[in-house]
Amino acid sequence: MAQTTEEMQNKGETSVAGPSMDAISMITLLADILRLPEECLAMSFVFLNRYQKFQRQQKSSLGLDNHMLALACLSVASKAKDAPRRVREFLRPAWRLMHQAPDSAALECPSPAYDSLRSTLVRNELILLRILKFELRVSTPFDFLPGYLTEAMRDFGVNDGGADALVYFDDRSKEDKEADRIADLMETGIAKDCRAKALGACKDYQLANFFPAKAVTAACIYIVLRDRGLLPGIDMKRWLRDKVSRSIELEDFEDAVSSMDKR
Fold first, then answer.
1. Are residues 32 and 91 in the same domain?
2. C-beta separation of 117 from 91 below 8 A
3. Are 68 and 145 in the same domain?
4. C-alpha to C-alpha distance for 81 and 78, rounded to whole angstroms
5. Which residue range forms the structural domain that includes residue 64?
6. By the 8 A CB rule, do 5 and 131 touch?
7. Which residues contact 168 (CB under 8 A, 6 or more apart)?
8. Residues 254 and 189 grouped into a single domain
9. In angstroms, what CA-CA distances link 137 with 1, 134, 211?
10. Within 13 Å of residue 11, how many CA atoms lie on the same side as its CB?
11. Mean pLDDT value of segment 88-108
12. Rounded to whole angstroms, how far apart are CA atoms 41 and 74?
């Protein structure tokens, strides 16, 4: 007979037990160790928040081990973002993070401990997938950031409308970009600040669970440009409609900006 999600959670789980580390910290460290893209890290945080939302709605005191939950979120996200890693690639560094005493031995593969942890991780992934209803096409701000930021930055381009006006940086040919060593927009300081804002939003329970990713993306860009003094006296509604996207609800955008300003 198939087990319910609650029954699976209630069953004893093997943990990479060790010093206390919250799930977000562990996900962040492992993503760096495994060289996973930022988009994968963001999706991991969203999955973690979806799990926490499920727990609150069920009002259940049962829950997955924090460390194994982090591994499950990162593993499922890596597959969803086409950046999969082997199970051992998750478990061995996780074991090392949780057992940092000088005399701690590395996790051997194969070994009874490894087999037990592998089984637990697979079980936790299944629990997470059930909570997500096997829907992995979850949007994050990183899906919309390049396009929205490109449009928002056009006002600051070098094209003055004259007959000999220069072509906007992103519209130039690949050869011209290479010849003039034009950096990609997403490599600029503004884009890096926007990505940091977007990643922070994915960690936030409210923003990750109750706000559309498009509205959060626009809010990230607006706050970064505003705080850099690039939007003096700009009306939020007009900026959103004319410079980013008309498909975003103004109320969602304003609420996202307000929520992020309070963080």
1. yes
2. yes
3. no
4. 5
5. 23-132
6. yes
7. 154, 157, 158, 159
8. yes
9. 29, 9, 16
10. 11
11. 82
12. 7
Q: How far apart are CA 25 and CA 71, in angstroms?
A: 11
| Number of Cα atoms under 13 Å in the Cβ half of residue 262 | 9
Q: What is the pLDDT of residue 167?
A: 55
Radius of gyration of the chain (CA): 22
CA distance 162 to 110: 69
Q: Which residues of 173-205 are buried (b: 16+ CB within 10 A; e: fewer)?
A: eeeeeeeeeeeeeeeeebbebbbebbbbbbbbe
- Burial of 31 per CB tally in 10 Å (0-12, 13-18, 19+): buried
Of the three residues 80, 98, 132, the one that is the final residue of a domain is 132
Terminal alpha carbon distance of the chain: 46
Rounded Cα gap, residues 57 and 1, in angstroms: 25
pLDDT single digits (tens) 168-178: 676 777 887 77
